[in-house]
């Protein structure tokens, strides 16, 4: 079978790769996000025109109905359009890129891989919000995100430890977006992100969890909903705390020179991260392994040492730093499904 093109459009950049059935990357590149993503990708892929089996797209929010990769049809596109408000930084741009690639090569079979799918079987107690029944009936529940990478981390750790049957793992996806997943025997049983990717940990420019009463207070004061949305997603998190940057490496350097905003950003980030890890440990009834992934988690050795020191009370456990690889997982899943179709 011909190789797969894998398209991973994040909130700030585009990662793409051509991967064969053996998992070998025949080409990979990283380009701009936003409106520049499609023309950049088309230029890079010109030598591959007619030589690709399919295009696998990362779609952040799959809602209640998408629990596995799916071939993209006009009906599926319509369903995804309805989910754009739930992940505006991701789903809208992803759909635009899907349409652009279909126009570039209509013969290239498009597939969607959902970041929510790994969490689709969360226990009811974990995905249910304590809201009125009429609200819950409208589908207001925890979905969880970063599922593609949490699944990759889970499979990698199980492979390294020899596939232990009772493995209790906390997967920490720490990058521009951040989330934790409590994984038991390869299944997600709890996670920090919720109905949207805004809940949970402190992120680069996203606030993470805040008291909903605070938001109601701002609305009563007359602050428009769109303004609140923009502030929570693009002006908060590490950027809002530091008033300097949302870039982790830059904040590390600034904190070392006693920049108070950078120091505060790192302190709040770690405080919320430690609290989240403690909550995941409680859901798992103990921990066998913690894996750090994402741009921050996989690359900051100092963060690993800081966490080990603060989490010594968890007892002996395995620590890993694992580079994110949504692309490899997406290629394996979609090539296998296409071959079986």
What descriptive keywords fit this protein?
2 domains; alpha/beta; five-stranded mixed sheet; 18% strand; 11 strands; 341 residues; six-stranded mixed sheet; Nucleotidyltransferase, domain 5
Summarize the structure.
It contains 14 helices and eleven strands. The protein has helices at residues 37-45, 74-81, 91-104, 124-127, 133-136, 147-160, 212-220, 225-234, 237-242, 248-256, 260-284, 294-297, 301-310, 326-340; strands at residues 4-9, 13-19, 25-32, 54-59, 70-71, 109-114, 168-174, 178-184, 187-191, 289-293, 318-321.
Q: Give the radius of gyration.
A: 20 Å
CATH class of the largest domain: Alpha Beta
Structural class: alpha/beta
Provide the low-confidence segments as ranges. none
Strand count: 11
Mass-distribution shape: globular
CATH architecture classification name of the largest domain: 2-Layer Sandwich
Fraction of residues in H or I helices: 40-55%
Please characterize this protein's 3D structure.
This protein is 41% helix and 18% strand. It has 341 residues and is of the alpha/beta class. The chain has two domains: 4-114, Nucleotidyltransferase, domain 5 (2-Layer Sandwich); 147-321, 2-Layer Sandwich (Nucleotidyltransferase, domain 5), CATH 3.30.420.40. The protein has a six-stranded mixed β-sheet with strand order 3-2-1-4-6-5, sandwiched between helices. A hairpin with a 2-residue loop joins strand 8 (178-184) and strand 9 (187-191). The radius of gyration is 20 Å and the shape is globular.
């Amino acid at each position: 079978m011909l190789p797969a093109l894998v398209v991973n459009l994040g909130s700030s950049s585009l990662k793409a790769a051509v991967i064969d059935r053996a998992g070998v990357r025949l080409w990979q590149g990283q380009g701009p996000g936003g409106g520049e993503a499609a023309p950049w990708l088309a230029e890079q892929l010109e030598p591959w025109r007619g030589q690709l089996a399919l295009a696998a797209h990362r779609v952040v929010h799959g809602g209640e109905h998408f629990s596995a990769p799916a071939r993209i049809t006009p009906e599926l596109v319509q369903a995804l359009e309805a989910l754009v408000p739930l992940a505006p930084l991701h789903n809208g741009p992803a759909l635009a890129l899907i349409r652009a690639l279909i126009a570039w090569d209509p013969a290239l079979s498009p597939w969607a891989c959902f970041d929510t799918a790994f969490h689709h079987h969360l226990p009811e107690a974990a995905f249910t919000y304590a809201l009125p029944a009429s609200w819950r009936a409208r589908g207001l529940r925890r979905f969880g995100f970063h599922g593609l990478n949490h699944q990759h981390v889970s499979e990698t750790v199980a492979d390294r430890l020899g596939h232990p049957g009772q493995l209790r793992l906390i997967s920490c996806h720490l990058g521009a977006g951040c989330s934790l997943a409590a994984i038991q025997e390869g299944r997600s049983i709890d996670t920090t992100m919720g109905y949207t990717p805004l809940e949970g940990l402190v992120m680069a420019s996203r606030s993470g969890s805040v008291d909903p009463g605070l938001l109601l207070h701002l609305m009563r004061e007359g602050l428009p909903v769109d303004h609140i949305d923009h502030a929570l997603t693009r002006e908060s998190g590490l950027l809002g705390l530091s008033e300097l940057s949302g870039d982790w490496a830059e904040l590390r350097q600034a904190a070392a020179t006693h920049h108070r905003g950078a120091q505060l950003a790192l302190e709040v980030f770690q405080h919320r991260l430690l609290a989240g890890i403690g909550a995941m440990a409680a859901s798992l009834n103990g921990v066998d392994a913690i894996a750090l992934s994402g741009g921050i988690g996989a690359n900051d050795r100092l963060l690993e040492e800081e966490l080990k020191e603060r989490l010594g009370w968890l007892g002996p456990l395995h620590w890993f730093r694992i580079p994110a690889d949504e692309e490899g997982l997406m290629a394996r899943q979609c090539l296998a499904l296409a071959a079986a179709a």
